[in-house]
Design a protein that fits this description.
Strand order of the largest sheet: 1-2-3-4
Distance between the termini: 14 Å
Domain YcxB-like C-terminal: 99-153
Keywords: Membrane, Transmembrane, Transmembrane helix
Order of helices and strands: EHHEEEEEEH
Helix content: 40-55%
Largest sheet: 4 strands, antiparallel
Organism: Paenibacillus profundus
Radius of gyration: 22 Å
InterPro entries: YcxB-like_C
Number of helices: 3
Shape: elongated
Protein name: YcxB family protein
Number of strands: 7
Length: 159
């Protein structure tokens, strides 16, 4: 690749929440599994560990409702916490990025930096975003757009 991919965008709170989710998805799945096992044991204990079809007819909906409520509570808490750390100054989340074979040039209203590809720890991808990690907990968030395939090729070649 001999050209430069130029991106200019503003991060949203959803972009930032997706970034935060990259760190907790394994522990969130583990916690969900533990919650379901504990709930199942409690429900089985209520039935005296003699659950038949009659008991399962009410236990399955209870498990589904508890999972839905836990998911909704998690989302609301994540949104509140993320909103506080994300801030309200939209200009602080304006990014101008140039990616090329040489590296990544990043410019925001507050800072400017250049990163060689050797400084990239890893690249991750969600359904709607790329994450260029410079350390285990520090990443550049790039919303996907018409440059997806060119970015994937660049990441494959250098990251």
């Amino acid at each position: 690749m001999h050209s430069t991919i130029h991106l200019n965008y503003q991060l949203t709170i959803r972009d930032y929440m997706d970034y935060q989710f990259q760190f907790i998805k394994k522990s969130l799945l583990t916690l969900g599994l533990i919650l379901n096992v504990v709930l199942l044991v409690i429900l089985l204990a209520i039935t005296g560990f003699q659950a038949g079809v009659k008991e399962w007819k009410w236990m399955v909906p209870v498990i589904i409702v508890v999972n839905g409520a836990a998911g909704a509570l998690y989302y609301m808490l994540m949104r509140a916490v993320t909103g506080k750390s994300f801030g309200k100054d939209a200009s602080a989340h304006q990014y101008d990025i140039q990616l090329s074979d040489e590296g990544i040039r990043l410019q925001t209203p507050a800072t400017e930096g250049y990163y060689a590809w050797s400084e990239v720890y890893k690249v991750a991808e969600s359904r709607k975003r790329f994450f260029i990690f410079f350390a285990e907990n520090t990443a550049l968030i790039i919303p996907k757009d018409e440059h997806d395939s060119a970015l994937r090729a660049l990441f494959k070649a250098h990251a």
